[in-house]
Design goal:
Length: 437
């Protein structure tokens, strides 16, 4: 059995490697800083050309969202491992934009990301399975391209440190990077964050976050598919490709708690198991107790099982009240002290409506605004930290052991094969059993 799938604590945490550490100040309140301008539409300017790497549903959606962010925007290059995915995205993007993407700017294969980056684009949209994100991000930054990349930004400690290093280079180059954590671009969250940072609930003393939902999609292996092709088409169910759903999906909620507390966990103790999953090697649920460096705890819970009570939410408890992080500040007696009120705005048809702009579009509007105003935004480091916290929780559940931030920042654990080809992967579906050595 390969090192990547060996069934021991070493196999899931990795050996200690020489590496630097990254930390955020851990304070009980955090003053508002680095908030996006959240304009209704990005300012005009010379045409910004974007290239999409990863033409699945989220990648296609991100490319369309980019086109909706403001004037003079174009998607001019596409790349994917599979031609059918590229062709599907191409048709939808061309329909939205009314412009044809040239055949010579459509690339298929594991090296497609290099060709998209080298095709003359200004912005690279990275939306492949998260395993590939660190390599693709490093290549885009080294080529001096602005980046939109979907969360999570990695699946393992080695990938997280790579993202952090690339983030520092991007900052030195004056590049803008937005990372798909759309709650940070959702007006209700931003305004609630401002209230809490201003002391509306006092000092935050504990928190909780949830992504409890139904079963996600899966792909059964079809005749003619190699092992690699099947895994990539079924990527959301394989840990080496997605990081498991605590990383791939629940990172959104963990990131909100990191954002609102101005800190990140330094320890995790969790559990989980596999109950219903049809393919892959992942768990169906996780429950993790995270500890910040000043001793505060926050609880993380996520599940992907049909027929259960669902909740996708966050909660922070303060010394003077509490909040759902999304729209409401509560007094200590549970009554509402403040509620977010959506604006009245004009929709795309020029009609006056009540409601906020989609955060999936707003994050691209903020990216384009940063590029055109010359005031860079760079979310990569914060999202790498939130992703690594989720990885820490996953590893604790897989092993049954408490896992520390120091271990993660000094681990040589890298998931996945050493090279990529559409053939055998030699990575059997081994489901972790806690307590196994």
């Amino acid at each position: 059995m390969s090192e990547e799938t060996r069934f021991t604590r070493r196999g899931f945490i990795g050996a200690m490697a020489a590496a630097g550490t990254v930390a955020l100040a851990c304070s009980k309140t955090k003053k508002p800083e680095g908030l996006p301008p959240m304009l209704e539409t990005a300012p005009d300017g010379p045409v910004l050309k974007a290239g999409l790497v990863g033409c699945g549903g989220r990648g296609t959606g991100a490319a369309v969202n980019f086109l909706e962010a403001g004037p003079s925007l174009a998607v001019t290059a596409l790349g994917d491992v599979f031609a059918d995915r590229l062709n599907s995205a191409r048709a939808k993007i061309e329909e939205k934009s009314g412009k044809t993407i040239a055949d010579e700017h459509c690339f298929v294969g594991f090296d497609a990301f290099e060709k998209v980056i080298g095709s003359g684009v200004d912005v690279v949209i990275l939306a492949t399975p998260p395993h590939f994100r660190p390599e693709h991000f490093a290549a885009a930054v080294n080529a001096r391209k602005h980046v939109f990349m979907e969360k999570p930004v990695c699946v393992d400690p080695v990938g997280a440190r790579s993202i952090m290093e690339s983030a520092e280079r991007a900052e030195a180059f004056g590049l803008s990077v937005v990372t798909g954590t759309q709650r940070r671009h959702e007006r209700s969250y931003v305004e609630t964050y401002k209230q809490i940072a201003g002391g509306a609930i006092g000092d935050i003393v504990s928190a909780a976050c949830y992504w409890n939902g139904g079963q996600l999609w899966y792909e059964l292996r079809k005749p003619g598919w190699t092992e690699m092709e099947w895994m990539i088409r079924d990527w959301v169910n394989w840990c080496w490709l997605s990081g498991d759903h605590i990383v791939e999906q629940h990172v959104h909620n963990i990131d909100v708690i990191n954002w609102f507390t101005g800190a990140h966990p330094v320890k995790a103790l969790g559990f989980g198991s596999r109950q219903r999953r049809v393919t892959g090697d992942q768990y169906d649920f996780f429950s993790v107790d995270f500890v910040l460096d000043d001793g505060r705890h926050f609880h993380s819970m996520c599940r992907q099982i049909n027929g259960c009570t669902n909740s996708v939410s966050e909660f922070v408890q303060g010394t003077r009240g509490s909040s759902d992080c999304h729209s409401t500040i509560y007094k200590r007696d549970g009554s509402a002290a403040w509620k977010f009120t959506p604006r009245t705005r004009l929709n795309d048809e020029g009609e006056e409506v009540s409601g906020e702009k989609s955060p999936y579009v707003q994050e691209h509007t903020d990216l384009v605004t940063a590029i055109r105003t010359g005031v860079p935004i760079n979310e990569a480091k914060n999202t790498a930290i939130s992703t690594l916290a989720a990885v820490m929780g996953r590893i604790s559940a897989y092993t049954g052991r408490e896992v520390t931030w120091e271990e993660m920042m000094n681990s040589d654990l890298r998931l996945g094969p050493a090279s990529y080809r559409l053939g055998s992967v030699n990575m059997p579906a081994v489901v972790p059993i806690p307590g196994s050595e």
